[in-house]
Amino acid sequence: MRLATLRTPTGTVAVRIDNGTAVELGVPDIGALLARDDWKAFAAAGAGPAHPLNSIERSAWAPVVPAPSKIVCVGLNYRSHILEMGRELPEYPTLFAKYPEAVIGPYDPIVLPAYAAQALDWEGELAIVIGAAARRLDRDAAALAIAGYSVMNDLTMRDYQYRTPEWFQGKSFEKSAPFGPVLVTADDYGVDTELRTEVDGEVVQSAITDDLVFDPAALVSYISQIFTLNPGDVIASGTPGGVGHARKPPRYLVDGNSLSTSVEGIGTLVNQVIVEGD
Which of 64, 71, 195, 175 is nearest to 116 (CA)? Predict the structure, then answer.
C-alpha cells in the first residue's frame, strides 16, 4: 500500500494511492493515520473523494509525515560512505536528530540563506517510518513496529557541521530536508533496493541498501532501548558513498541546482536549490 499527505485549500489530507488516483482517507495526514491502532485496515478501507494523480500539482505534495515528533538520523551507516570518509566500521549506530521544522515536501524548493549554503552537501537516505510504539524491542518485534519506508535527503551544511565535534548544527537547518513522496508499507517494500542521488541529472550517489551496516530492524531495536519511538516518528537510515564533501576537491550544491533523490520502489524527490541574498 502506498500512502501520502496532500495539501488542500482547507488543510492537509492523508491519501492512499490506488491505480493512478489519490483516495482521501478522512484524516489530516499520515502521522495522524499512524496514530490509530487500526491504521492499516483503516487506510485500506478508506473510500473518500478520489483525485487523478495527473491532476495534482507538485506543490500539493506535503512531507509524508508533516510533523514527526522525532526524526532520528544515522551517520556512517553505509560501508561505502564510511570507507570514503576514512573511518572504521562502527560497533554501534551514530545517532543525531533533526527537528520537524527541517522537513519540506518532496517537490518543494530548498530555500536557504546564503550563509547556510557555503558548503551545502547532499545525502540521499532511506527513511524508516514507525507504525507502533517501540520501547525496548528485540529485532523481531522492532521489524513489526515499522509502518513502512519513504525517501529523505539529509542535506548537510558541512561548514556548520564541523564547527564543533557535535554534528547537530549542520544537520537541522529549517526547511532543508525533503521527505516523501509516499510511504510504502513494509509488506510492499522490496529489500535490497537502489538508492540514487542526482545533481542536475548527473548521478552522484548510487548504492543498494544491503550496504547498510545496521539495517532497519536493528536500528529500531537499538534506538528503542534509549527512548520510545512513537507512530509517525522517522529514522533517516544513513547515506551511501558519493557525498560532495568527500570528493577531491570537495563539491557542494549551489543556487539553481536540481537535486533528485530516489529509492527504487518508493519514488523520487525533486528539489531546486534556491539561495537567498546575503
Answer: 175
d(CA 92, CA 87): 14
Q: Which helix (H) or strand (E) holds 182?
A: strand 177-185
The set of residues, in sequence order, having a beta carbon less than 8 Å from that of 142 and lying 6+ positions away, is: 134, 217, 218, 220, 221, 224
- Residue 179 neighbours by CB distance under 10 Å: 31
CB atoms within 10 A of CB 66: 21
Mean pLDDT by 10 residues, the chain (278 residues): 97 96 98 97 96 97 97 90 80 95 98 94 98 98 98 96 90 95 95 93 94 95 98 96 93 98 97 90
What sign does the CA torsion over 12, 175, 103, 190 have?
Answer: positive
Q: What's the pTM value of the predicted model, to 2 decimals?
A: 0.95
Quick one: cell of 75?
Answer: 551517520
- Using the structure block, give the residue that is written with the C-alpha cell 527513511: 127
Radius of gyration of the chain (CA): 18
Instruction: Tell me which residue has cell 548537510.
Output: 156
- SS3 category, 34: helix
Kind plus residue range of the DSSP H or E element containing 239: none
Distance CA(256)–CA(253), nearest Å, equals: 9
Q: First CA to last CA across the chain, in angstroms?
A: 44
Number of H helices, E strands in the chain: 6, 18
